[in-house]
Amino acid sequence: MFKVVVLVSGGGTNLQAIIDKVESGYIPDTKIAAVISSSRKAFALERAAKHGIPGEAVVKKDFDTKEAFDKALLETLDKYAPDLVVLAGYLVIVPEIVIRKYANKIINIHPSLIPSFCGDGFYGLRVHEAVLARGCKVTGATVHFVDEGTDTGPIIKQKAVEVLPGDTPEILQRRVMEQAEWIILPEAVKELAERK
Ligand code: GRF
What we know:
This protein has six helices and seven strands; from the N terminus they run βαβαβαβαβαββα. The chain is α/β, with parallel strands linked by helices. The chain has one domain: Rossmann fold.
C-alpha cells in the first residue's frame, strides 16, 4: 500500500481531489495515511475527518523556536512513515530537516506555470493577481518535487489554462483549480504510486 501524507493550510480542495481519486480507485493501492495542517481552523481538516482520515495540526506559533516546530513536524510525519508527502495549499516553508529526510518524496502544487509567477510571495490569489496585472493570455498549474528552494524543484506535470477577458483573480483561481490543479495533482500521485 502506497502511503501518502498531505500537508494543508486552507480549504483543502486539492486534498479533496486526491481523496476522491483514491476512493474511486483512479489512484491505485494508495492510502492517505494522514492530513497535517499548519492551522487548526483549516477546512481541509474537516474534509479529512469526513473521510475517516487522521488529521492533526502542527502550528508554528505553538512552539518557542523554529527548531522546535521543525522537529515536531518531522516527528509527526515520521509517525505515518509516508512513501510520498504532498503539499496541497501548504503555506509554511518546509523545514530543511524534512526535505533532507524525505528527499525526492515531497511534491507541491503551485497555481502558475513555473518558472513564471513563483518563488517568495507568490501564493494563493497573489499569483493570479500578478498574472492578470501582466496581461497574460495563458496561465496554469505545476506539480514539482520540493527541494531546498521555493518552487524550484524538478517539474513533474504542468497544465495550461486560458485567461479570459473580465477575469478577476478569484474567477481565474477557480478556473486554474478546476481545469488544472485538481487534475494534475491526482495524476502525479497516481503515477508515483504506480511507480512506487
Ligand atoms: C490555492 O491558492 C491553490 O491554488 C493553491 O493553494 C491554495 C489553496 O488550495 N495550490 P486548497 O483549496 O487548500 O487545496
